[in-house]
Amino acid sequence: MEYAESYCQQNNGTVMSIQSQMENTFAQFRLPIYWKMLGAKKVAKNTYVWLDGTVWGTFDNRDPLDYYSDTLDCLTISGLNGLWQRANCSSMQDFYCKIPLGPKVDDSKCNSTMLMVPTEISSAGGPCKWQLVTPGAYPISIYFVDMANGTTVELYDENMQLSQEIKQSGVHFDAKTNILNVAHDGVGSFKAVVKAQTYSA
């Protein structure tokens, strides 16, 4: 899966996600009988996310008779019946990249001199830095909603002292001040939501 993610990102795409029966049928009939890897990963028991950031919606074509081990964290689609089954993320499955039409819009806010919070930041396909600032004295809170395997994001305080390295999705970090510096070396991909910490009495 790591190779598939990297290859698709280099071509301005993501490993195939499927949002509807129409997309599923389209993918199924362009596959031979064997399996293709989907751009999904398990984040909890029986719970998956799409790596391209789209919401895991109401369309879910997982095979109810899937007999593969529940310890497997990725999904494949069958060219025979279009059903999805669990698969080993490290297996060398074929894959398709889903590439949007038109020019890729860079919404990463990469190398912003000073980025006001609340905001979202994401990988830009290369090395990138952000300086995040909240107005007033509220410290910053950052939550990593999506992160590909092999990705590392470094968080630095206002004096550029390393505070923490983030290497997985679902991590939440509260800074001690209203300034937080973020650095990504360009390897892998991530998306994070940033806001000011608020306190209730």
Automatic annotation (TrEMBL):
Q: Which UniProt keywords apply?
A: Disulfide bond
Can the keyword Disulfide bond be found in this entry's annotation? yes
> Boundaries of each C-type lectin domain copy?
1-98
InterPro entries from the UniProt entry:
C-type_lectin-like (IPR001304), C-type_lectin-like/link_sf (IPR016186), CTDL_fold (IPR016187), Snaclec (IPR050976)
Superkingdom field? Eukaryota
Q: Does the keyword Disulfide bond apply?
A: yes
What name has this protein been given in UniProt? Protein CBG22654
- Identify the species of origin: Caenorhabditis briggsae
